[in-house]
Every structure is written in C-alpha cells, then in structure tokens.
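This section describes the prediction task in plain terms. A model, or a person checking by hand, is given the sequence of a single protein chain and must write out its three-dimensional structure as a string of tokens. No templates, partner chains or ligands are provided. The sample shown here is typical of the held-out split.
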Amino acid sequence: MNILLTGCAGFIGSHVLDRLLNDGHQVVGIDNFAPDYPRAIKEQNIAQHCCGKTATSTFTLLEADLTNKATFTELDQQGFDSFDAIIHLADRGSDRASIDDPAGYLQSNVVSTQNLLEYAKDHEIPHFIHASSNSVYGLNSNTPWLESETDLEPISPYALTKINSEQLGHTYSQLYDIRVLALRLPTIYGPRQRPDQAIYKFTHNIIEGETILMHGEGDTLRDYTHVDDIVDGIIAALHYNDTRHEIINLGNTRTVEFQEMVAQLEQTLGVQSNIEQLPELKGDVPLTLPSIEKAARLLGYTPSIPFEAGITDFVKWMYDTNPTCTA
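The expected answer:
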C-alpha cells in the first residue's frame, strides 16, 4: 500500500513508520519538527530510514506544516497523488499545555485534520485513520468508557480539539467516499517517549537524583499502554474494511496508580525517588479507563505487554540510547 503518515518522526509515528516499512508498504511521511522538544530527538527516531546505508528506499520524508495548504500543493508537485490510506498522528498532544494556548491547539489539531480530510476527498483516498484521545471523556465517571458514550466532559482545549476532529471525520465519511476511523488513544509509554511525558520525566529524575513533582494525592489512575500495543491497533485499523465510520478506543484493561507507577520505576532502576507534593493541576482527570471490547471485536486488538515488562523495556531504552544524537 501507498500510505501518507503524518507525525512520522514523533513518539508514536516513528514506531508506526517502522512497522509499515517492515511490512513492505511505501510511505510518505510528514513532520513539522515543531520545537516542542529538541529536533535531534525526532531526527534520531527516524535516522535508520533516512541516513547512509540503512536509508529506506520506500520512505520519503517531507518536512512541512499541515495547517498550510501549500503543503498539499507540494505533495502534488512531487507526484504523490495515489495514496491508499492516510494515517494522521500529527498533533500537539498535551492537555496541560493546551490550557495556555487554546488557539494554537485549535489551529494545529483541527485545521490540520480538516486539510487532510479535504486532501483525501479531492484525491479519492479511501481510508483515513486519525488519532483521537480518551481525554474526550474528561470527567465522565461512568467507566469503563464506551465509544457510544454521549456524556463527554472534556476539561482541556486539547480534548476539545479531538472532539472537533472526530466530528469532522464523521461528516466527511458520510458525505464523501472515505472510510474514517478515529482511534481514541490512552496514556502511552515506551521507547522514544517524549521527554515532557510523565514516565520519561520521572525516570530521568530518579536516575539524576532530582525531585519528582506529584500534583495532588498521587491517587490518579491511568491505563498506561505500551507503544507496541498501540501500533498493533493502528495497523489493524489500516486493514479494517467494513463500516464507513467508527470511533474505537485503544488502551489497556488495567489501571496503574501514580504512586504504583513511581514504585515500579524505583524497583526497575534500583533507586529510591524523592517526591514533592504540590496542589492539583487544571486539566488533570482522576481516572482514565476505556472499554476496549469494540477494538477487540472489530480489530482483533488485544494488548499483550504487562506494565512491569513495559517499564523494563523503557528503562533499557533509556540506558541504551542517547536520544540527543542527530540523524
């Protein structure tokens, strides 16, 4: 298949890129290398496909801004006009940061999705997968969350942009000949995790003897899911060929409390942490727990990596890899 993959150099996108290329697909990847964290980290994520003897002939990288329609003109000018599917993973992905920049998040997340849906419509691309988030459920306490839930209670601009993007996808799927799947993603961890995300930050802090900041009582619960399990779900969605539009939760059936997560890091690292308690932050929810029954039924999705094994894998990557190396 010929696939357009956005966010190809990011945490999740680079893992999806690895899998697509290993499976024999042709991939055009778009990333804007936004300065949210060091460019060198993203370059390292995809270096094996871009540089020297390991460069992959079936991969083309385009550094571009999806909110700029000139990007899509450039795709046409380069002859990339026969994609079988779009996998849209590019976004600004922080509930907390979105509170300080709601307009920027709206532009980055919603406008880019609409531009891609327009591109899919104009070029008759039949299959569109995009990353939503279980942040859309917000403060809804009726867990495990079902995709049919109508009582969505987003408490961050980021979550709202994901609802907006889902609605765009539904509209385009009904009006035009595009199959659209919105995947509501959980809290994801694993190798190549962004340095601003909790497990990366806390692992770094423990190794360096720095203090971990705990907002609230440390009793928040998250369905931490290893990135390899998420990639399995995304690839399964790529091969889904039934109904025209679906919203599907991906995630895990086990929740992990904040303090349990820190304790697992301490055990794996063999180092005690120092924790400072601070007030709760806006934009945090006490619990994330989606139902993944629909994903199992439609996609055959079954997460297989236990949290303890996933943390061991992540810590090994932290020790083995220098993420600041340039490509």
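For orientation: Residues 2-186+227-251+289-303 form a domain with the Rossmann fold fold (CATH 3.40.50.720).
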